[in-house]
Specification:
Elements (H helix, E strand, L loop, with lengths): L3 E2 L1 H7 L5 E5 L3 H6 L6 E2 L5 H13 L2 H27 L4 E5 L5 H12 L5 E3 L2 H17 L3 E6 L6 H10 L3 E3 L1 H5 L17 H13 L5 E5 L4 E2 L2 E2 L2 H8 L2 E6 L2 H12 L4 H9 L2 H17 L3 H18 L7 E4 L3 H15 L2
Parallel strand pairs: 1-5, 2-3, 2-4, 4-5, 6-8, 6-11, 7-8, 11-12
Antiparallel strand pairs: 9-10
Length: 343
């Protein structure tokens, strides 16, 4: 009989154990969303999965199974080698597919038949997603967020990273989304995380927190194509607001560090999307400046003409204002202020 385990059992009893999730779904399924930290060992590639699905629908289940066996039999030695390599690193291997069905069943059955001790995640990825969807709102209920606001380039993300290094709990929304939230927000980052993956990474960050005091960057409801869940957004709005300021030189440096690293084509493509906001004349000039590597002028003018006017219209109240020209110094000042605020 297959050894199955529910996700909640892992979270409640296994967090200190040496285990790894193995996602046996196709590469496209895995790349769209998975359990954070899972390793992909696909039984079928995308083309094979499509062929089997077509046969299953248009011909017969039995023929689909036979074709599936033909596909997987050729790659079993490679799959076995990958699994044994993981077995040397981890005490517990937990396999899952979409719904805990044929793909994970067949592989786990095979491994057990040759004496390898493994687990199958009960209900597969679908049951994991249901668990996250149900429990993420409860996870946020008792959290007090300290929300960092500030104009573009003031170093809010750098401050969050430094706060984390110093042992503070943070929730990096942009990191979870793999997007910075603006029209230029994907430059240099690659593909944005899906909504499901975004929520999984939110959960993963918060379940590991050491306290109920969590630092977070103030964001609009939408980060690229991902949407902050309403319950989280409301909790942020009830947070303690602090503002981060920096001089224009510091802001330009921060922007160039984030956006400029062999990304000219992406910058130009993103700038094209700003034509309706800034006009063709400005955008054509910025594109020419990018082509000539004069990034400082572009960064400065985008802040003055586009980002700052969007930000300054709000009338948000702040408990404290910090200058971030020195990231190490401002991080220490924020920690000291929080300690005094809660003492």
């Amino acid at each position: 009989m297959l050894k199955t385990i529910k996700y909640e059992e892992i979270e409640n009893n296994w967090l200190d154990k040496n285990y790894v999730f193995i996602d046996v779904r196709s590469p496209s399924e895995y790349n769209s969303e998975t359990i954070p930290g899972a390793i992909n060992i696909p039984i079928f590639n995308d083309e094979e999965r499509s062929i089997i699905g077509t046969i299953y629908k248009q011909e017969s289940i039995e023929k689909a199974k036979k074709v599936g066996i033909d596909f997987v039999s050729k790659k079993l030695p490679t799959i076995y080698e990958k699994i044994m390599e993981l077995k040397r690193k981890y005490d517990n291997l937990i396999f899952f597919c979409a719904r805990g069905g044929m793909r994970s069943n067949s592989l786990v059955s095979f491994l057990e038949s040759i004496g390898i001790n493994v687990f199958k995640l009960d209900g597969g990825y679908k049951s994991y997603r249901k668990y996250i969807y149900t429990h993420l709102p409860d996870l946020i209920k008792n959290i007090q967020f300290i929300v960092l606001y500030g104009n573009t380039g003031t170093g809010k993300t750098l401050i969050l990273e430094n706060l984390k290094k110093k042992g503070m709990d943070i929730l990096d929304l942009e990191g979870c989304a793999n997007h910075r939230g603006s029209i230029l927000g994907s430059v240099g980052l690659g593909k944005q995380n899906s909504q499901k993956m975004f929520e999984s990474l939110l959960y993963e960050s918060l379940i590991k927190r050491k306290s109920n005091l969590v630092f977070i960057e103030g964001e609009s409801r939408r980060i690229g194509k991902d949407i902050i869940p309403e319950y989280l957004f409301k909790a942020m709005q009830k947070g303690i607001n602090i503002k981060v300021e920096a001089n224009i030189k510091t802001r330009i440096t921060n922007i160039l560090d984030s956006y400029v690293h062999d990304t000219d084509n992406e910058l130009i493509e993103s700038l094209d999307h700003l034509r309706k906001h800034l006009g063709d004349k400005n955008i054509d000039r910025y594109i020419n400046l990018v082509k000539n590597h004069q990034y400082n002028l572009v960064a400065e003018e985008l802040m003055i003409k586009y980002y700052d006017p969007m930000y300054e219209h709000n009338d948000r109240e702040y408990c404290k204002v910090f200058n971030s020209d020195d990231i190490e110094n401002v991080t220490n000042n924020i920690i000291q202020w929080v300690d005094e605020f809660y003492s």
